Amino acid sequence: MAGRGLRIWSPLVAVCLGGLMLAACGKGSSAGSSASSTPASKAATGSQSSVASKKPVVIGASLSLSGDFSADGQAFQRGYELWADYVNHHGGLLGHPVKLDILSDASSPTQAVTNYEKLISSNHVALTFGPFSSLLTIPTSKVAARYGYAFVEGAGGAPDVFAAGLHNLFDVATPVANYMLPFAKWVASLPPGKRPKTAAYPTSNDPFTEPVINKAKSLLQKAGVRTVYYKVFPAEVTDFTPIADQVATTGAQMVVLGSVDVPTVSAFMQAFEQQHYNPKVFIASAGPDQGQAFLKAVGTSNANGVMVPNGWYPGVRIAASEAMVKAYVAKYGGSPSGINADVAEAFSVGQVVAQAVKATHSLSNAKIISYLHSGVKLSSVEGPVKFDSKGENIAALQFIFQWQHNGHFVQVLPTKAPGSQPVLFPKPAWGS
Amino acid sequence: MKVTALVQGGRQARSPAADMEEPWQQERRARGAWAAGVAALLAIAIAFPWVFTNPTTTSIGVFTLIYMAAATAWNSFAGYSGYIPLGHAVFFGSGAYTLVIAAQDLHIRGGYTVFALVPLAGAVAVAVAVPFGLVALRTRRHTFVVITIAIFFIFQLMAFNLGITQGSSGIPAPTPTWPAATFNDRFYYVALAILVVAAAFSWGIRRSRFGLQLLAIRDDEDRALSLGVRVSRVKLTAFALSALPVGMVGAVWAYFIGQVYPQFAFDPLFDISVALMAFLGGLGTVSGPLLGALILEPLQQYFTLQFSSNALYLVVYGALFLVVILLLPRGIIPTVRDRVASWRERRSGSTALASGPDAAGGVLSSEMAGGGVAGAAGGGAVSPPGPSGPAVRRG
Amino acid sequence: MGGAVAKAVVDGVLTGGVYALMAAGLTLIFGVMDIINIAQGILVVLGAYLSYVLSQDLGIGLFLGLLITIPSLFVIGVAVEWAFMRRLQERERTALSILVTYGVAIVIEGILELIFGPNYVQLRAWYVNQSFHVLGFYLPYIYVFGFALAVFLLGVLYLILYRSRFGRSVRASLQDRAAARLVGVNVERVSTITFGIGIAVTAAGGMVFGATNAFNANSGYDLISRLLTIVILGGLGSIGGALGAAVFMTVIEGLVAVLWSPVWATLVFYAALVLVLVIKPVGIFGQRAARAQ
Predict the structure, then answer these.
(1) Which residue in A216, A143, A150, A206 sits closest to A177, CA to CA?
(2) Domain limits at C31?
(3) Which of A211, A226, C110, C270 is the most exposed place for a label (fewest CB within 10 A)?
(4) Which residue of C has its CA nearest to A206?
(5) What's the rounded mean pLDDT across residues C58-71?
């Protein structure tokens, strides 16, 4: 059974708690929204007094703070909060401080829809930011569209999101089509003698992953890499051994794994090692980008040479990003390398909206939508942003990262991008 | 040892009949007042969106009505037959996919026309339920529970993999262009209409000969069979009927949410959620699941909103969840009814008390006779069994 | 392709051992106590986390650690039975057991997430990633060890059930609780101890699961429907049946994944159950399951 445990049983208990909570309930939703936006209010109070004295601009979002998407949802919350802090220290939006109103949806579309309805019609937020996950983006963006709200988001990059034809939707993240582009270019650029001749593509059944892998496959086939294995496996499979072992028996020189999480990647790596199968190149669409969480699951020595595509990393040489990383460490602790790329995506959402507000001199959602559709080039911690007619960011940067020597996560592609280091190729043997 | 077992057996054998008491059975004279009460509740439900116009409220109202209808329909099979299916999400999902696929194929872009597809969704759900039931209802008890789970996963996996459902990308529903302020009201009234259908089914089944046959199966299927109940047909009919409202609300949900994905349309926790609602209100009663869903769905949304950002929430809720289940295992309606009954008995003196439990059986029997039920068929369901009755075997 | 097929069969057999280990406790509890234990999945994860703590923090090996984790889970099992299971009234026992064990699962999941956080971990030992070469196959040590452990523990369970006085009481309760009571079996005590044993065996299943999969507190949910399927197919309460059914299912699943597609493999896993029950409603290996049917 799927893991969305939270939502379902909670109500029963709610009945029980109901008695205790009567006092709190009496205060109604205002108690709720102030509770959930406490960090934001703190941020607002910490800002410059001239800004803080004006009426705040309230921005609403629903995030999956528990349930299946909670790890990403919580990272997004941090990103939004960091942006609010930043903006409040730099004059606010049109001179008004920003206040966030973040609700939790426990990774459920039903709850997410209610939440945006509440943010807009009850809490009367001025602007909305997107939720986490493509799966929640379409239902919630339809609610926002109904009210004419602009819907800028950083986590709904699946092609079907744009196919829905929503005029108010903008995604700051890299479009799927470009995800593996630097990787495919690099493979094609290798001298024919060294270039992997065969590739295996096991991929998870996921609206985001499948298009990424399909695109990579077609690019690599054009570069002359023969496909020896291409199979889709279910998203919630619990035993990868037969799949991974079959990939191993094909002896493909390159494995392009369509994964959504760490356990999938670690299961494949474990089976490969057990089968004494070591491809020259191993790249996974997601999982190896999870920093310490990934190393802990697979072991540091096994990670050596594993690659992953991503649009951002903590070491990226963009001034705004460096400032954000510093602010993150100051606020939440930890080290820069532990910062999830989701934080930057959320931060970028805020930056894009702020630039639109500044340029249009208004908080009018209609003006913001037409401004963002005008083809103007904006900037973010993830690099340039420019939206096409569907709301995809066609200017987004795309990098490939690789784990190298003793758990260092380094940018390797595109080869000529600032900060890129040489690719560790071929991938070293497992455990070395 | 032996005595304890027998006493327990005897007590448990009686309680089903007592629990199943609806007011109309206890006081037939009060039927008029009962009808007036139902009419008043319906009027309140109809007036609700006019009084509480805030879209947040009506949005929660739509989801609540959807779950009320689903819990009522689920209970009209599970509560009466004693079979616990955990696969009704199949009907919900089938209904949802029927609506979006049909709308896509017929090029319906939005508006009221889409609602015309809701009965179609219900019909498809029933069409799915017949083979589902034919297979699953060959088994009983725990095996039945597990086979419904297995069939559920088969459907979810098909939704993920078949071309017609467009895999993990899902299918968008038509987008209506109604104004935001009253957008939810349309869905509210359609869901309310389905709820009325589901409740009418549940009530009709409960007081029909068909319903008594279901209860007979619930108490002892083999005995019901030997008494001449056409067990397979009765079970399958009830199962298929219960799929109809679930498929219909699945379609409304799909149109309301705007996009159908396999894992949300075929949600493994749907049945646990619905079962919880039925249990909270009172399994096997007509009004129990209505009350259960009416309490749970809004509170669920409220509590998710307020407290779901911390893992401690899991521990606290799980603990409270257990406390509630263990303190109120029979549900609100039966518990309250028993309290009221015993309060009345205490007031009216010891004579009523003495005839308490048996009176229940007596009323049922007379109701049966009045309803023209074949005595043989119903007998197994309601006659208070002796010490060697079916209840011992249940243990 | 031939090599891949043979490999899939070997993998299926070995994986089946792991599943049998995870399902053995479930089938015992299911059969004897007449309840569906939705918490089985999270208990597997709990067993895995216990092994993780012992090996990471105390440096105790995974197999040696079982001497601690198995008794620990026995105690937890007895406590859960005492606190919740025996309070279930006989009526609606099936449905109530689903809801109550679901509640138990939520609590355990919450505690695990509080302690360990949402990140995935995996058990480590030299034999976890190594394999040896025999008859042209690389056999991973962990799966071979896991299979041996499964056979050993299932054998012990078999001895307890069929060669001891307690076992006779358990089997009597399995066949008919009321009749067992009548012949003087203390069904409550048998239930408590059976629940404890069932959960205790799960500690071993959890250890092997944790060594073959990266897991977090949320990992239990994907397991439970598969374990239930295996238990029904094997026949309620049948230890050997659980092993047979687990191997049967994982071999079929592996073959479909290799010959056709992994997406349909999972579907075939469930479809096999449906098919078998259509032909033989008590399951492939089930005779005793006829009780209460």
Answers:
(1) A216
(2) 2-290
(3) A226
(4) C263
(5) 88
